Amino acid sequence: MHPRNIALLAALLAVLAGAVVYQKNQTPYPGALKSQPVLSFKFDKEQVSAVLVDRAEDKLRLEKSEGQWRIATQWNTAAESQKIETVIQQLGQLSGDLRSSDETLFADYGLGEEEAVRVELRGEDPDQELAVLWVGARGLENASAFVRKPGAPEVFALETPLLQSLGFHRAVSGSGLERDSEFWNDLRLFRQDIGAVEKIEIKRGASQGSESFFSMVKKENREGENVKTFWSFEGQESAFAPDEKKIEDLLQLLGGARALKALDPSKDYGFGRPIAELTLSLKEGEPVIFRAASAGQETKSYYLQSTSDPAVFELPLYHVKRMDLPRRHFFLNNPFGIESADVKEVLLRKNAQEWFAGLTEDKKAALERLAVLLAGLDEEVREVKNPPAWTEPAAAMEVKAQPERSWIFDFGPAAAGRVPFRLAGEPRVFDVSESFFQSLFKDFPPPADA
């Protein structure tokens, strides 16, 4: 080998040897970690049957029973299963960067025991602790979280919005955390499949002492292998079939509506005499019964009790109004639908005489009586399949209501205790009982001084 090459090789070996000696003699800088700890938070997700979320004196316990998550610390009311499953999923996939190994710095991350949120997962055995994690009260601003494990000094930074997933938010004042009291509540009114409803029963007016009841049942019509379902009124005879669109609207409302909040069921809300009671019978399982009671004149909400949940719900007024419905609401192709409060004039004709009831003081009482009768007309009528023919009406009636609606009735001669009539613009012929007809014309003939 050339002497020059030998000299270059010797110089290179000397440099490498010096670098090795230098590296071995280096002293680690203060605080440097030879091997960084890794966040390890392992548990069997399938075994989790309880989640405890505690912060100082604020205790929350979520328990799973028969496949349903419930809030054990809030009357055992139903909880939103998806939110709980999300938390369990997030905890099972935790990964984070080490921020500190000094437990004296816990307070800087909101990880002191009086400030932090303690999350504990338990198995089916109430004493079976699967995992525990402390979540710091800092970190909401950038959707991150600081966590530590019990008995360990390490603090890890996560990119997981764990505090939000646990139902906490920053207080309005800007300092500290607050837990949303309704965060975990499943506030849905009806949690079953609305397609499984086979019977609807509605009771109304118990709170006013004049209870009414009707029911609608789903039936099947088989033609060979084809099966068609349809709704029918049960028990009471009616001139009208149920409007399936309106029934579907009611079920969709119950399936999608949410309460405002859950309330303590031990208090008295007046369910002994409810405004309305709605019962839904299903293909399988127990019927679900809803009872509505007024929350008072000063509020625009109502109380609702359900047999599917131990809590009482506060419900917006507009939801209750869409549930507290008379049977006539569900009539298909109902040509009447007269509201008593809207009637402003009634003109009666009989025996070549006329009699008028209106809003004047001397006629007002008679008008109010007639308006109540007319409001119940669609419950009294029956459709006549083979109507009798008549050329001269036995009587006639014209009803005017606001806003700008009117009905003209042409009554035929009575037969077998029924009085047939035609309604202007309506091809069908109906009849009413003779006693109901007499009630309409109670004030006939007019007084001699009229």
Provide an overview of this structure.
By secondary structure, the chain is an alpha+beta fold. The chain has three domains: 45-179, Immunoglobulin-like (Sandwich); 194-329, no CATH class; 335-440, Immunoglobulin-like (Sandwich). It contains eight helices and 26 strands. The protein has helices at residues 3-24, 81-92, 162-165, 244-256, 317-321, 364-375, 377-380, 434-440, and strands spanning 50-55, 58-65, 68-71, 77-78, 96-100, 117-122, 129-135, 145-148, 155-158, 168-170, 177-179, 197-204, 212-223, 226-234, 261-263, 276-282, 288-294, 301-306, 312-316, 343-350, 353-357, 382-383, 395-401, 405-411, 418-423, 429-433. The strands form four sheets. The chain has a nine-stranded antiparallel sheet, with no helix packed on it. An eight-stranded antiparallel sheet has the order 14-13-12-16-17-18-19-15. Strand 6 (117-122) and strand 7 form a beta hairpin. The radius of gyration is 37 Å and the shape is elongated. It starts with a helix and ends in a 10-residue tail after the last helix.
State the main characteristics.
Immunoglobulin-like, elongated, alpha+beta, 9-stranded antiparallel sheet, 8 helices, 450 residues, 33% strand
Query: Rounded to an integer, what's the Rg over CA atoms?
Result: 37 Å
Shape: elongated
Note the gap between the termini: 145 Å
* Low-confidence sequence ranges: 20-34
Number of domains: 3
Number of helices: 8
By oligomeric state, this entry counts as: single chain
Order of the strands making up the biggest sheet: 4-3-2-1-6-7-8-9-5
